[in-house]
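Design a sequence for this backbone.
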């Protein structure tokens, strides 16, 4: 069933970004598996908070898989909007955007959690950098489009 209406150009451009993030999530899954393989025959020796090393690894693997699932479903929703099968600002568009943003911020959480097995300080530095950069982004976003230009 092909649509007669034009798709959203914005959503067409966002599909390449979503494909990139989905690839990153899959890479993170592979890296998580490599950590387990490279640390064998000993178990994954990172206890975080009340979690044992085995529980931490299971929680991390599940977290990475959930972020990948969210990103995949968001991509399907954006495909419909980009192809013109669903309208801009429709339920499918809002659902896809919500899942996409959740997967982006979820992916940011994966990086420090993978790094904590090697260096807790490094993971903390990466987490703080992500928080600082997100704050700069959101503050800059609220400033408006003409706030950075000196004169026109």
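Sequence:
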């Amino acid at each position: 069933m092909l649509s007669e209406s034009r798709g959203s150009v914005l959503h067409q451009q966002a599909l390449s970004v979503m494909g990139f993030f989905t690839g990153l999530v899959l890479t993170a899954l592979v890296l998580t598996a490599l950590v387990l393989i490279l640390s064998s025959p000993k178990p994954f020796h990172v206890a975080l908070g009340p979690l044992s090393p085995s529980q931490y690894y299971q929680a991390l693997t599940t977290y990475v898989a959930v972020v990948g699932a969210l990103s995949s479903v968001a991509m399907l929703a954006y495909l419909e909007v980009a192809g013109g099968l669903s309208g801009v600002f429709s339920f499918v568009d809002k659902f896809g955007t919500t899942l996409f943003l959740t997967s982006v911020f979820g992916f940011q959480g994966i990086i420090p959690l993978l790094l904590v097995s090697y260096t807790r300080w490094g993971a903390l530095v990466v987490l703080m950098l992500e928080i600082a950069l997100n704050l700069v982004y959101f503050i800059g976003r609220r400033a408006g489009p003409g706030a950075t230009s000196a004169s026109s």
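The domain at 9-143 is CATH 1.20.140 (Butyryl-CoA Dehydrogenase, subunit A; domain 3).
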